[in-house]
Amino acid sequence: MMDLNGQYAAYRNATHRNTRCTIGHVWQHRFYSCVLADAHWQTALRYVELNAVRAHMARSAGAYPWSSARAHLGLAKAPVWLDLHQFQQRWPKPANWKESLAALTRPPHSPPGCRPPPQNAPGLRPRFPRLHRQP
Q1: Please, which pLDDT band fits residue 104 given cuts at 50, 70 and 90?
Q2: Hey, is 39 helix, strand or coil?
């Protein structure tokens, strides 16, 4: 894995030489945290709770056991660390949240039954050019 990351870093640095993205290591500056406006917070929350559905790890947000969606949908008791105060002000009933999630569940460009190709499909392995000379 270290070798693959090294090859990718060399490839990326060579192709993005004149951009701000090449400062530091490849994964530097990926995380960013800030206070979200109310509308953005609502969209971000729906997006995060639907990640498992989009990744085909669960059929619905409530079916994924490691998500706060189970508590938001009333399917499980909220853990002590999950603060539901602000959430319940916006969506007082689990049915309200279920409707809100349904609005983002299937984007218009994704036809029913559409699935991504399997990870081990032939020809999907990334190929990075070697940028260093062999001794």
Answers
A1: confident
A2: helix
